[in-house]
Amino acid sequence: MNETPAIHSITIRPASPADIAAITEIYADAVQHGTASFEIEPPDTREMMRRLQMLMTGGYPYLVAEHAGTVAGYAYAGPYRVRPGYSWSVEDSIYVAAEFHREGMGRRLLAQLIADAESRGYRQMIAVIGDSAQIPSIALHERAGFALIGTLRSVGFKHGRWLDTVLMQRALGNGDASPP
Asked: Number of helices (H) and strands (E), helices first, in the chain?
């Protein structure tokens, strides 16, 4: 894939509360027009701030991609499940503003997210991809070393149709080769 010159001026950095308005806007577009999230109504900035603070307090990586001083995408890893036995596994989420789709920003965000999760000692990353028609997201994860685990058929309903969920997984660090 050839990257546009604009993508080279992207800075990947930790998210901060000051980024929440842009994060909320990017996510609202994904909720309203896409199928990556099964939310029906976009959360407001207060709810998005609560989510950001919960992940930051928990020590999970949360990143933004900044272009020309504007947040153009974001990614985070959060708990895969809340029970203690799952504490070494995280679920990733990546959202990119529509004008930056298919320019390599998601790849850069995911690569940094993987590195940050590994540095925190996590051992598995799970991608829960909404809608099996999300071919670009599936391909992004495949290129980052994720393996297809399975597809849950018709588990969500949005925009007048049933949606699948695709599960993909990637080992981090030593994966399951040794205890945490």
From this structure: 4, 7
Query: What pTM was computed for the model?
Result: 0.93
Determine the straight-line distance between the first and last CA of the chain, rounded to whole angstroms: 36
Q: How far apart are CA 177 and CA 113, in angstroms?
A: 21
Q: What is the pLDDT along the chain (180 residues), one digit of tens a residue?
A: 444 445 568 999 999 999 999 999 999 999 999 999 999 999 999 999 999 999 999 999 999 999 999 999 999 999 999 999 999 999 999 999 999 988 889 999 999 999 999 999 999 999 999 999 999 999 999 999 999 999 999 999 999 999 999 999 999 999 999 999
Please report where in the chains the tokens 């989420």 appear, as a residue: 93
Q: Provide the greatest CA pair distance for the chain.
A: 45
Residue type, 160: G
